[in-house]
Design goal:
The protein is of the alpha+beta class. Helix content is about 35%, strand content about 35%. It contains 3 helices and 5 strands; from the N terminus they run E-E-E-E-H-E-H-H. The chain has a 5-stranded mixed beta sheet. Strand 1 and strand 2 form a beta hairpin. Helix 1 packs across helix 3. It is globular, with a radius of gyration of 13 Å. The two termini are about 25 Å apart.
Length: about 90
């Protein structure tokens, strides 16, 4: 199973990459794909929306924190629009 989760980077000032990763991998383990980043100090977020939508359509589960970031960016609205196009 694939999850979208945060992967910590930076020593003193932490920032996080949003990655698609296998559930059995540790937090700092090898990721399948980088799909964005989040910097809580600067309150910046970058999301590769088409790639995130691809993983969500294939059944990837976001963690709670990533899900909150995606809700703020209104990615789930785009997901429902894409699903309506296919039906």
């Amino acid at each position: 199973m694939v999850k979208l989760r945060l992967k910590r980077c930076g020593r003193k000032q932490a920032f996080y990459r949003i990655v698609a990763i296998d559930v059995r991998s540790p937090r700092e383990g090898k990721d399948l794909r980088k799909v964005g980043f989040y910097d809580p100090m600067k309150n910046q977020t970058y999301l590769n929306v088409p790639l995130i939508l691809y993983f969500l359509e294939k059944g990837a589960q976001p963690t709670e924190t990533v899900q909150n970031l995606l809700k703020k960016a209104e990615v789930f609205n785009e997901l429902s629009c894409n699903q309506m196009k296919f039906n």
